[in-house]
# Entry
Amino acid sequence: MKIRKAVIPAAGFGTRFLPVTRTIPKVMLPVLNEPAIQFSVREAADAGIEHIVFVISRGQEATNDYFHPVPPLEQALEERGNTELLNEMRDISSMVETSVVYQDEQLGLGHAVLMAKDEIGGEPFAVFLPDDIFYGDTPAIADLIGVFSKHGSSVIAVKYVPDESVPNLGIIDPEPLDESVYRIKGMVEKPRLEDAPSNLAVIGRYILTPEVFTALENAKPGAIGEIQLTDAIDAVRTEQGAFACEVTADHFDVGTPLGMLKASVYAALRRDDMSGELKEWLKTTLNC
Ligand code: G1P
# Structure
């Protein structure tokens, strides 16, 4: 079955990035020169997703505006004959259709996804957490869609994480199935290390069935007092089953300034016009 729509939860104060997030949405901060959210949107478009619902806070409309045409800019680039950049700009606004819903209270990730219920309707859909970005040949979401086509129930991206990360993430109880694919026997959000069923952590890509919305409507606050998406997926799992797909692409968590900096350095090292000078500068600065 085709996955046509995706939700990208992007609301909140971006506290870890203050002061810059006083007026700029966190997801618009750059990984080198691209806003972080563009990684998720491009990954979605590459996998054939047509419509993205951004869940934002009031005043964060720049996130949605970014994916629409900017006529004066296009005109200026056209006049200057800068066709390459012009095409790049046009690509950004033609990747997907977008719409916006607001999350007026910060009650958790599950609550954010629930805000998109009416926009999604009764079909399976994707969720992208824009703090998680990937570099790889196949977009992570495409792998998940492949597993969904086979099994027809929720599919979640996971990766092995070190012990110290376990209490901050969603953790699955895995039963190995095919290569890189697991049947999920249980899921727990932000467990204590001693209670965690494994070190396989949820990273921000999901394919979900619409029944998750009912589970979210019935959900009670879970870990850190928030409505957790993990809990709702686990509730649906008991009826429909759920699967996990281990993602091997290079992954960055750009939800902290240091993570963002690492992703930016990585992005620059991949560019022919920057990598040489950057490596030289790092060598001199680090004295090695
Ligand atoms: C969220 C999810 C968690 C997942 C993580 C991945 O947590 O609730 O299951 O492991 O994203 O980035 P958050 O980072 O919002 O606390």
